[in-house]
Structures are given as C-alpha cells and as structure tokens.
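Second opinion, please. Pick holes in both lines of this record:
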Amino acid sequence: MFQKHATKKCASLPMVEEQEQQEDGVIEEVADPTPTPPTPSLEPVKDVLPSPPPPSPPSPPPPPPSDFGFVFSLHLMFVILDT
C-alpha cells in the first residue's frame, strides 16, 4: 500500500513541476517592473490660441447739448418784438 502511494506520487511529480513552472512564469510576469512614466517637461509651451485683441481706449464723453437753437430763437424773438 505504501508503495502504491509512492508510485502515484512519483507519477504525478512531472505534472506538479510543470504546474509550478507555470505559476513561476505568472509570478515573474506580475513581478516584472512596470516602465517608469516619462518625466514631465518643464519647458513653457507655446500658446496656439489666438491672443485676444488689445483693449480699446475709453471713448470720450459726449459733448454737452448745444443751446444754439434756443439762443437763436430767443434772439429772433427779441429782434421781432423789439421792432
């Protein structure tokens, strides 16, 4: 009985070694170092968007309303009434 068990164990030995080799391969694949990411560049990047137009200077204030029409009408009234 002992011998029968020993032969079974020996018969399954190549299968166990093959399985261990497969497991070792998986472990090596998992344990391989991952590639390091590239270091970021600290150089300034050229802006590809168009720059906004420069701000326009403030517009001058509108002129005050002219009193020319009122003064002219008043002058005519005095001229007409004065005569």
Observations:
- The chain has a mean pLDDT of 74.
